[in-house]
Specification:
Blueprint lengths: L1 H5 L18 E3 L5 E3 H10 L3 E2 L6 E2 L6 E2 L1 H21 L26 E3 L4 E3 L1 H9 L1 H4 L3 E2 L19 E3 L4 E3 L13 E3 H56 L6 H48 L3 H12 L20 H6 L3 H20 L16 E3 L5 E4 L19 E2 L8 E7 L6 E7 L16 E6 L5 E4 L3 E4 L7 E7 L4 E6 L4 E6 L8 E6 L12 E4 L6
Antiparallel strand pairs: 1-2, 1-5, 3-4, 6-7, 6-8, 9-10, 9-11, 12-13, 13-24, 14-23, 15-20, 15-24, 16-17, 16-23, 17-18, 18-19, 20-21, 21-22
């Protein structure tokens, strides 16, 4: 038997259906040999019964005869292969380690597999892989990098290789599935779907990289905001210290309170920034992890693994939309001013200096404001450039649209604010009554208007000649040293601050603080009624003449 086997080639021990060494070889009437399981399954599918080698047709299913000779030769061939593998194990072959795929053919000590065969569903070490590299029929088998659980690539229903992909059900199927559950479905070869999905993975990788880059830029933006805030805080503290250093012992307590207030704002801002940075860095870490997984998957030649993992890896991990997120330095406008206000007599000279600086700061946020004629009361007269408004005695015939005030003689601006800061100035010279401020978008514009923050109005007004009021939930009398001819209005949305200034006197008139803004804010103007010509002067939105 041994001498005879030497005259035979390895090809003669291979089944022409599975292209592997015969298992339970049988002979059919035309004389060709096959594995018993292979020819049985082949004839289960194909009718009439035909020889896979010579194509001879049998009109009744032939009886299978066990081929004892081939069976013995195949057994000896396997024994020879095992002996060869055993002798090689003492050489420079690598034994499999934890995490590596072992050779399925090795007996005893398992060597590390170099390739897995998707036809044989077996993983081979270097020695046992040799037939697949030398035998012509085995060369046709599809080899991939070694993977575990090759049985999982078999159809559980038909015990056939999952070599097709059903686009309809988004799952891997075998050839027999296309004749049953997936008969009318869109089915393509596994490789075709693999190539298509691999291209999508490339786009996913690019998208993830872009997301990482955006978040890295956002971190830089936040860090820069922190740096600018620190500079502002240092500058503000220096100004405050300079003021209080000039005072005697009676003002030391006020100085400490001022510094604590500023530092607390800075600490809150830094804490917010640190929270954002931590979130961004965590998202970047998750995205990098996903990027690595996607990159590894996109390089894999394992069709099955790619398609099984595609759904979970193709979508980017859930992340926060950072487009509108930013860290804004806290506003210090009015901080020092309010701290030294009780010491007015002692600080009058220093107060004037501080107010000049204050006004110069807020003027940096000046915006170009124009009036919106669609909101104006029918008796108001707007200039052609929409910078002036006054009350007329004749009610114009205008559409009573939803935006228009129908009872209160007022108008709002075109411009709105939903974040950040803005400033504008209004000339009130020559008027005996007026209202100015900002309003939220959802205010009631029909019927009687009550100017309170609760109703969405943050305003001040001249009631009668020299009676100035802040329109809080209850009216607050304002004691002004002089009658303003030009009023500056400053809003810090995030800080919840609305401040009014006497521009010419560089004096703070009043501030609404601790406001909670959740809607768009619009500049608000009311020249009040004409009063028989006594209040005929217009409100004029003035260009900013920056204080020296």
């Amino acid at each position: 038997m041994s001498a005879a086997s030497c005259l035979l080639t390895e090809d003669q021990f291979l089944c022409s259906i599975c292209l592997d060494v015969f298992t339970d070889p049988v002979t059919i009437p035309c004389g060709h040999n096959f594995c018993k399981t292979c020819i049985t399954e082949h004839w289960d599918i194909n009718v009439p019964f035909q020889c896979p080698n010579c194509n001879k047709v049998f009109y009744t299913r032939p009886e299978l005869q066990v081929n004892t000779f081939i069976s013995e030769m195949a057994a000896q061939f396997r024994q020879s292969a095992q002996q060869k593998a055993s002798s090689s194990s003492s050489s420079e072959k690598h034994m499999s380690k934890p995490g590596e795929v072992p050779c399925d053919v090795c007996t005893g000590t398992k060597l590390m597999a170099l390739k897995s065969c998707l036809v044989c569903l077996v993983s081979y070490c270097e020695t046992h892989l040799e037939p697949h590299q030398t035998v012509s029929r085995l060369k046709k088998h599809h080899l991939i990098d070694p993977v575990e659980n090759l049985e999982g690539r078999m159809c559980t229903k038909h015990d056939k290789l999952l070599e097709l992909f059903c686009k309809t059900d988004q799952m891997c199927v075998c050839m027999l599935c296309t004749y049953s559950d997936h008969k009318t479905h869109d089915v393509v070869p596994l490789k075709e779907e693999y190539e298509e999905e691999k291209a999508k993975l490339g786009k996913t990788e690019a998208k993830i990289q872009q997301m990482i880059q955006k978040r890295q830029l956002k971190i830089q933006e936040i860090k820069r905001s922190v740096e600018l805030s620190e500079e502002d805080a240092d500058r503000e503290i220096a100004d405050g210290v300079q003021v209080f250093t000039a005072l005697k012992e009676s003002v030391e307590r006020s100085q400490a309170e001022l510094i604590d207030t500023i530092k607390e704002k800075q600490r809150k801002m830094e804490k917010q920034a640190e929270g954002f940075i931590k979130e961004l860095e965590q998202e970047i870490s998750e995205l990098k992890k996903r990027s690595t997984e996607v990159e590894q998957l996109s390089q894999s030649e394992d069709h099955f693994h790619v398609l099984q993992s595609f759904t979970s890896l193709n979508a980017a991990p859930p992340t926060k939309d950072w487009t509108q997120v930013s860290v804004r330095p806290p506003s210090y406008e009015g901080t020092v001013l309010r701290a030294v206000n009780p010491l007015e007599k002692k600080l009058s000279k220093q107060m004037k200096k501080l107010l000049d600086v204050e006004l110069k700061r807020v003027q940096q946020f000046a915006v170009d404001v124009i009036l919106d004629p669609d909101t104006a009361h029918p008796k108001l007269i707007l200039s052609d450039d929409r910078k002036q408004v006054k009350h007329g005695d004749v009610k114009k015939n205008l559409p009573n649209n939803q935006e228009r005030f129908d009872t209160c003689p007022c108008v709002i601006a075109k411009q709105s604010l939903s974040s950040g800061r803005f400033y504008y100035e209004v000339q009130v010279k020559g008027k005996t009554k007026w209202d100015l401020g900002v309003v939220r978008e959802s205010i009631n514009r029909k019927g009687k208007v009550t100017l309170t923050p609760q109703n969405g109005y943050w305003t001040i007004c001249l009631m009668n000649e020299n009676e100035f009021e802040a329109c809080a939930d209850t009216l607050i009398d304002l004691s002004l040293k002089s009658r303003p001819e030009k009023v500056g209005v400053f809003v810090d949305y995030e800080e919840g601050l609305v401040s009014f200034y006497d521009v010419d006197a560089a004096a703070l008139i009043y501030s609404f603080t601790g406001c909670s803004f959740t809607e768009k804010l619009y500049p608000y103007f009311s020249p009040c009624t004409n009063n028989g010509g006594k209040n005929s002067a217009p409100l004029i939105i003035s260009p900013i003449n920056h204080t020296k």
